[in-house]
Amino acid sequence: MKILGKIKRKLDVKKQLNNKSKEYENRFDECAFKGNKCSNFEQYEAVITRWYHTIEKGLAYVNFRAGFGKNNMDSLLETMDNYIKDGYDENAFFFQTSLSVIQKYIRKNAEFGVKVPTIEDRIKRLPGVANNYGGIIKFEPLDEKELQSLNYKDFICNRHSMRHFSSEPVDMEKLKAALKLAQYTPSACNRQGWSAVVVNDKKILAEVLKNQNGNEGFGQEFDKLLLLVADLSFFNHDRELFQPYIDGGMYAQSVLNALHFYHIAAVPLSASLTEQQEKHVRRLLSLNEAEVLIMFIGIGNYPDICQTTRSERRTPKYRIV
To answer: Which pLDDT score, from 0 to 100, does residue 8 have?
Structure first.
């Protein structure tokens, strides 16, 4: 009877995991945006923000490429047109920010002698008034001592994602110190089921980046690349299906803050890869079956003068119940 009870429990757990996985898959399929097609306000906010941020990134490149991003700009303007046609608010913060980014794109291209009349015509037909929260910012990075003297609020607000780096290599001892500091991330039952792969070999780094979709135009400047992974062996089979990504995401933020603390410039990069891309990365970095990808982080040292996307934060959403 005990054996039958154990078998029944295993089957029940497997059924529960399958149901939970299927439920999430169905929710994701129903609620996530698909390309530029939007069926509610939240999807429009996400898609418009996604596209205008790709334009901001291009504006932030030190080696500016005039006329860049035509396909992305077309997707942005098409989505903004549909947003207005569907009767949504032209005064929404993200819509005004998008107008601001497009105007700065037009002006920046004009500085390089490139005119974009079609884009100018299309933005004139859109309602709304641009705010001044889109585009890029320029700043001089604080040194390590200055960073470590900041209070928590100023420290967090001072961190920026960098897409331009100096040629000076990152001090490996500083990187080790940052990873040690990030180990203080909270985790389920203090299991700390994560690790970092430090890609130092430039040939391997270049091959890995070929399988990541968001580093074009700046990935070649990375001194090193981090891949953060969660280890499924640390998680409870009964009910922790998503816990590796929860703990892994918290660890990723801690790593970014720790890199900032030690004055290492960094940019987080998505590890949401295609099946084939992930196979290539797993092979290149010799990952085992228990390791799941959480995030890539490109790192290097700061250049003398920095510029990056403004990436203004929206008003937080919360509910009190």
So the answer is: 63
